[in-house]
Amino acid sequence: MKIKLIRHATTILQFGGKKILIDPMLSPARAMAPVDYSPNRQNNPLVELPVTIEEFFDVDGVLLTHTHRDHFDDEAARLLPKEIPVFCQLDDKQKLNDLGFAQVYPIREKINWEGLKITRTSGQHGSGDLAKKMGPVSGYILSAPEEPTLYFAGDTIWCTEVDVALDKHQPNISVLYGGAAQFLEGGPITMTSEDVIRVCRKIPEMNVVVVHLEAFNHCVETRDAIKRALNDQGLSNSVWVPENGELLSF
Predict the structure, then answer these.
(1) Which domain holds residue 88?
(2) Which residues, at least 6 apart from 93, have a Cβ–Cβ distance to it below 8 Å?
(3) What does the alpha-carbon distance between residue 198 and residue 192 come to, in Å, rounded to a whole number?
(4) Which CATH number characterizes residue 79's domain?
(5) Residue 55 DSSP label
(6) Among 65, 63, 111, 54, which Cα is nearest to 84's?
């Protein structure tokens, strides 16, 4: 299994004989307006793609945790081939159909795709009323013969849903969306370093990868801050915080 972080939540996963593009945000740097009511006013994305656009066409399918613009932007909708299989949460099916994608597979619970099983999990994109305003988000458990069990948590904080997913599926590897994304009011809407540490403590033998960092203006926690927090807790050997363009093999 190989995971290549492109930028933010955009990754390319090689798993079960498939190459899967996850949460594609393909706009050039500074092409999108900043997130409103957030701690800084820089245009998004904050950094350029570390690869050429052509790399995104050499994939077998697309997996979306949700369709907020930092996970599926207008550029991805424009550039990706409309015949490519797209797997998503049920709430996003109509939007993708309206954009012209011909093979959209909403996952209510789980789906089998040519030997690869994808199971949807839930999360909370923030707390209280803020989470309701942010709308539904999903994570996914991926499993295939001779592969480790993999958990993409999606845009969620530590919550009961994450705790339940870890208990039920016992993943070998978890990919967490960090950055402590937030607005001027309300708490974080993605994982903080403290949330990452709670995930690590839940399954001590699990490997963890933290993405969703330093690429969108409402993400305030840096790679260095997360690494320091992990080091303080003695967790550096089981957690990876990759740079953009970095390939991890497990």
Answers:
(1) 2-249
(2) 104, 106
(3) 10
(4) 3.60.15.10
(5) G
(6) 63
Sheet holding 150-152, edge to edge: 110-113, 116-122, 138-143, 150-152, 173-177, 207-211, 239-240
Q: Which residues contact 24 (CB under 8 A, 6 or more apart)?
A: 10, 56, 62, 71, 72, 73, 76, 80
Of 211, 151, 207, the C-alpha closest to 6 is 211
Q: 70, 27 in Cβ contact below 8 A?
A: no
Whole-number Å distance between alpha carbons of 240 and 248: 9
Q: How many domains does the chain have?
A: 1
Q: What are the pLDDT digits (tens) for 125-181? A: 999 999 989 999 999 999 999 999 999 999 999 999 999 999 999 999 999 999 999
In one letter, which amino acid is 77? A
Residue 66 tokens read as 């949700």
